[in-house]
């Protein structure tokens, strides 16, 4: 394993220019191809008027995202990774980071509202470097302390919070994660030095999400795996994309996508490894997935702040095992702090955790203010601050309704209660959509003349829930009457 | 389009509307959904989570598997009436 504390680490740590990084059916691209395309993009960035210090890489295609990332690393430009591509979020990033260029797949893929935000550039589609190395004689070395990415979470104050990711830590993160995944399956994964050599990855998560960034993009660049360019959406797409990949395969997905994949009952090709993260997987679903895909399912525990820090195989047991070098400590006030190893600095975790011996822990639940919709995290404070900042909104809160969906599993939306004389639910939704990921748009959104407060002037959960129930009842009455 | 074809679509609209309201936990009642209103954006305001839910409903109830590489997707999800037309023409159960 590479010593991540050394001064510099090759961009592709095995140093092999000819390793295949990306696959699209019969087309394949090597480390040298990606380097040649990244240099081409770097030249285009250099030709822009004025300095470029940051990039916002919005590429949807895996190959183009990777080229954009590598170009940034070569040019010492920091890749900014917003938690949503809503116009407001991008504008905020640009305001805080002057000299930023937006990178995207093609002019058609960039929403006009985003194109209007600032300078933008198309990432060239990958082409095969000819002759094979096209002047790329060796894999460049990157300083371990180079700032590569700043990944944003919604924070708690109404302003997204950036988390800096340095090259050495990212490489270490990828390698300890690969090692943790392969150690548990020493018999089944033909691992070379604890890396994912020879494994073909297919992901349903975006490259810009921390999990997708680590388990797809970095797992290919630094972990030895080969990545499919596909990002399948519908269950039928996932099955078709898997079938296009050589074995052994690893599906990198979320409980949300896995639930839909299994519920669709579409015929699935075998998949040796299934990786799941963003929310704890229901153990029954894990068993079902292993049976349907004929593989081993492992879950990753991590966060944007810490990176990936633990792994478990839910069909073998509920406890998590920390990755090499990472420690958990419980403070007097009950907070659990992760530190050590590739974790950039001590982080207070957003979950209720029972710390056990030998690097194990048990996940009890989320902290009360945290929400997770279809694998995307936010906090109630952030959502409330965004809602209350809308012109005309005098008061308003988001909350998790107690009632569950019919199958109990569908991603449950948040509800919101708003006092905003003169505003309509539609106009509030439109304003929220400017700033929030659509997953966090409230459903329902109730307009009230008075916020439901108790005798001490506090808004209580019970009061919010009964408002919702009353509104449902009146819906039913309307339905019955019609 | 034949008249009986249009009748089939009209008959599906309330059924599919009720499925959407139930599966997506919409604020609207099934009758309140305008069959010609856009499902996304400023219309009903659906998003990509909803598309997966709709795909699940459509595959379970009507035996239809949606795919991203289908060029018709934009048309299929344009409105409730378009979705019903697609179901009427392609359902296997």
How would you characterize this protein structure?
The complex is a heterodimer of chains A (482) and B (93). Chain A is of the alpha/beta class and 482 residues long. Chain A folds into two domains: 8-366, Rossmann fold, CATH 3.40.50; 371-481, GMP Synthetase, Chain A, domain 3 (2-Layer Sandwich). Chain A has helices at 31-46, 62-74, 87-96, 112-115, 167-183, 210-221, 235-244, 255-263, 283-293, 380-388, 425-435, 461-481; strands spanning 8-10, 20-24, 27-30, 54-57, 78-81, 100-104, 120-122, 141-143, 147-153, 161-166, 200-203, 226-228, 249-253, 273-276, 296-303, 307-312, 320-322, 327-330, 336-339, 347-348, 351-355, 360-366, 370-373, 376-379, 395-399, 415-419, 445-447. Chain B has 93 residues and is mainly α. Chain B has helices at residues 3-24, 48-62, 73-76, 80-90. The chains are: A alpha/beta (482), B mainly alpha (93). The A-B interface holds A 232-237, 240, 256-257, 260, 263-266, 373-374, 405-406, 410-413, 425-426, 429-430, 433, 438-439, 441, 443-445, 475, 478-479, 482 and B 22-27, 29-31, 42, 45, 47-49, 51-53, 55-56, 59-60, 65-69.
What is the topological layout?
The complex is a heterodimer of chains A (482) and B (93).
Chain A: E1 8-10, E2 20-24, E3 27-30, H1 31-46, E4 54-57, H2 62-74, E5 78-81, H3 87-96, E6 100-104, H4 112-115, E7 120-122, E8 141-143, E9 147-153, E10 161-166, H5 167-183, E11 200-203, H6 210-221, E12 226-228, H7 235-244, E13 249-253, H8 255-263, E14 273-276, H9 283-293, E15 296-303, E16 307-312, E17 320-322, E18 327-330, E19 336-339, E20 347-348, E21 351-355, E22 360-366, E23 370-373, E24 376-379, H10 380-388, E25 395-399, E26 415-419, H11 425-435, E27 445-447, H12 461-481
Parallel strand pairs in A: 2-12, 4-5, 4-6, 5-9, 6-7, 11-12, 11-13, 13-14, 14-15, 26-27
Antiparallel strand pairs in A: 1-8, 2-3, 9-10, 15-16, 16-17, 17-22, 18-19, 19-20, 21-22, 23-24, 25-26
Chain B: H1 3-24, H2 48-62, H3 73-76, H4 80-90
């Amino acid at each position: 394993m590479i010593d991540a504390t050394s001064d510099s680490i090759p961009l592709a740590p095995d140093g092999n220019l000819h390793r295949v990084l990306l696959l699209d059916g019969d087309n394949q691209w090597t480390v040298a191809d990606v380097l040649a395309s990244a240099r081409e993009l770097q030249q285009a960035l250099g030709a822009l008027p004025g300095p470029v210090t940051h990039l916002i890489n919005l590429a949807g295609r895996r190959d183009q995202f990777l080229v954009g990332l590598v170009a940034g690393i070569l040019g010492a430009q920091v890749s900014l990774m917003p938690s949503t591509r809503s116009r407001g979020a991008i504008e905020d990033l640009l305001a805080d980071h002057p000299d930023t260029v937006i990178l995207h797949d093609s002019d058609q893929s960039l929403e006009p509202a985003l194109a209007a935000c600032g300078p933008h550039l198309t990432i060239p589609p990958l082409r095969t470097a000819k002759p094979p190395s096209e002047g790329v004689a060796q894999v460049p070395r990157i300083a371990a302390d180079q700032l590569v990415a700043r990944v944003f979470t919604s924070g708690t104050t109404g302003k997204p919070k950036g988390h800096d990711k340095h090259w050495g830590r990212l490489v270490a993160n990828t390698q300890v994660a690969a090692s943790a995944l392969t150690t548990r399956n020493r018999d089944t994964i033909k691992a070379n030095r604890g890396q994912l050599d020879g494994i073909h990855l297919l992901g349903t998560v975006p490259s810009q999400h921390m999990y997708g960034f680590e388990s797809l993009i970095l797992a290919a660049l630094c972990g030895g795996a080969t990545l499919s360019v596909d990002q399948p959406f519908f269950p039928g797409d996932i099955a078709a994309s898997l079938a296009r990949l050589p074995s052994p395969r690893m599906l990198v997905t979320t409980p949300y996508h896995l639930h839909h994949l299994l519920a669709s009952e579409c015929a699935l090709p075998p998949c040796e490894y299934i990786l799941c993260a963003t929310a704890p997987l229901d153990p029954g679903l894990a068993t079902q997935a292993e049976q349907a895909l004929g593989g081993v399912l492992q879950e990753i525990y991590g966060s944007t702040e810490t990176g990936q820090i633990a792994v478990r195989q839910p069909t073998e047991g509920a406890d998590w095992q920390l990755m090499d070098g990472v420690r958990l400590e419980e403070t007097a006030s009950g907070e659990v702090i992760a530190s050590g190893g590739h974790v950039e600095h001590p982080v207070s975790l957003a979950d209720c955790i029972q710390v056990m011996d030998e690097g194990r822990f048990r996940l009890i639940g989320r902290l009360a203010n945290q929400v997770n919709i279809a694998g995307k995290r936010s906090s109630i404070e952030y959502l409330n601050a965004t809602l209350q900042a809308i012109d005309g909104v005098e008061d308003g809160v988001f909350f998790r309704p107690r009632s569950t969906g019919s199958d109990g599993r569908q991603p449950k939306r948040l509800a919101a209660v708003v006092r905003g004389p003169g505003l309509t639910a539609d106009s509030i939704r439109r304003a929220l959509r400017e700033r929030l990921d659509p997953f966090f748009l409230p459903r329902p959104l109730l307009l009230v003349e008075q916020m439901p407060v108790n005798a001490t002037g506090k808004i209580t959960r019970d009061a919010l829930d009964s408002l919702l129930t009353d509104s449902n009842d009146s819906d039913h009455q309307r339905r019955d009457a019609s | 389009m034949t008249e009986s074809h249009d009748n089939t679509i009209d008959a599906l609209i309330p059924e599919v509307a009720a499925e959407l309201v139930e599966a997506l936990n919409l604020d609207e009642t099934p009758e309140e959904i305008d069959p010609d209103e856009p499902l996304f954006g400023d219309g009903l305001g659906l998003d990509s989570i909803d598309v997966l839910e709709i795909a699940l409903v459509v595959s379970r109830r009507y035996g239809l598997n949606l795919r991203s590489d289908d060029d018709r997707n934009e048309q299929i999800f344009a409105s409730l009436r378009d979705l019903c037309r697609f179901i009427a023409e392609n359902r296997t159960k």
